[in-house]
Design brief:
Elements lengths: L1 E2 L2 H21 L6 E7 L3 H17 L2 E7 L5 H13 L5 E4 L9 H7 L11 H8 L8 H12 L8 E5 L6 H9 L8 E5 L6 H5 L4 E4 L16 E5 L3 E4 L7 E4 L4 H4 L3 E4 L6 H20 L1
Helix pairs in contact: 1-10, 2-10, 6-10
The site of guanine has 7 residues, from β4.
Length: about 290
């Protein structure tokens, strides 16, 4: 069994990005610039956005945070997006999700300029991805593909079972793994809440990607000997022995599953750090496209 170390790999990717930024700055050009829009006070969203800004600083990007009150109107948010769509010397921006209930998330996503949509959530980017065209890929699926590539994991002709069909993880993951690429080129099964016996599929899988958010869902008896297991789930469970009063756990019953696998991602320290690095990669890609 080999652990897929997202922290270590992500550090390497960030060093590569930083080197590129250093070369840009040495040539007296402006730094890549990412903006983030945060609406409301959701603690998880605040923490995610804080980390995204910190990541930008670490690689030498410029970053701008737009903090908006939770009672902002949809029109006001759309006005800001309109500004960010054309703002000079800005390469990309993200609107952190989820948004407050009175705001139509779909309308907001549709309003983002696809050329600045470094989250890869706009239908133009999603459609381009599905049609093998150049596109900003959503960060979590892109991070998993990068991990499979850099660990040289053979995916061609393998049976890949994905659990969860969310717009930002399971659905795009199923498209990327089925494309005629390396990694990719797998036979894909997408399981979801209406799949009656998920274990019938996972037991046959060479690669399992879980994106459910149900702690310890994937048990030892659901996994084939030698399978590759990628755990996207991240849930907080109460734990009085920790300073914060909780710990982070994935969808996989890690302690019991790990020895049966050929490769497995830990939680935390697996997919999460890769996701963060892919946002930086997309921003740099947008910067280069603008040149
Ligand atoms: N909410 C959870 N994940 C994400 C993400 O990758 N991007 C944005 N904008 N919101 C999120």
């Amino acid at each position: 069994m080999q652990i897929l170390d997202g922290n270590k790999l992500s550090k390497k990717i960030r060093e590569e990005i930083k080197q590129e930024v250093d070369a840009i700055l040495d040539a007296d050009k402006r730094a890549p610039h990412l903006a983030a829009v945060l609406v409301g006070e959701d603690p998880a969203s605040q923490s995610y956005v804080r980390n995204k800004i910190k990541d930008c600083e670490a690689v030498g990007f410029k970053s701008t945070l737009h903090r908006l009150s939770s009672d902002i109107s949809e029109e006001e948010l759309l006005d800001l997006i309109e500004k960010l769509n054309t703002e000079k010397d800005l390469d990309g921006f993200i609107v952190q999700l989820p948004l407050p209930k009175h705001i139509d998330q779909e309308r907001v996503t549709m309003a983002i300029n696809p050329d600045r949509d470094v989250d890869g959530f706009h239908p133009t980017n999603f459609g381009k991805m599905a049609l093998d065209m150049d596109a900003f890929l959503p960060a979590t699926p892109a991070g998993i593909m990068e991990m499979l590539e850099r660990y040289n994991i053979d995916t061609k002709g393998k049976h890949c079972v994905i659990i969860g069909r969310s717009h930002i993880v399971g659905r795009p993951m199923s498209i990327l793994m089925g494309r005629k690429t390396t990694p990719g080129n797998s036979t894909v099964t997408l399981c979801h809440s209406a799949t009656p016996h998920v274990e019938e599929f996972t037991k046959e899988a060479d690669i399992i990607i879980t994106a459910l958010g149900v702690p310890n869902f994937l048990k030892e008896e659901m996994v084939k000997e030698g399978a590759v297991v990628i755990d996207v789930g991240i849930s907080r469970v109460e734990d009085d022995s920790t300073k914060k009063g909780y710990k982070l756990v994935g969808d996989v019953d890690y302690e019991n599953v790990k020895d049966k696998t050929s490769y497995i991602t830990p939680v935390p320290g697996g997919v999460g750090p890769m996701t963060r690095s892919m946002l930086l990669k997309n921003t740099l890609l947008s910067y280069k496209r603008n040149k």
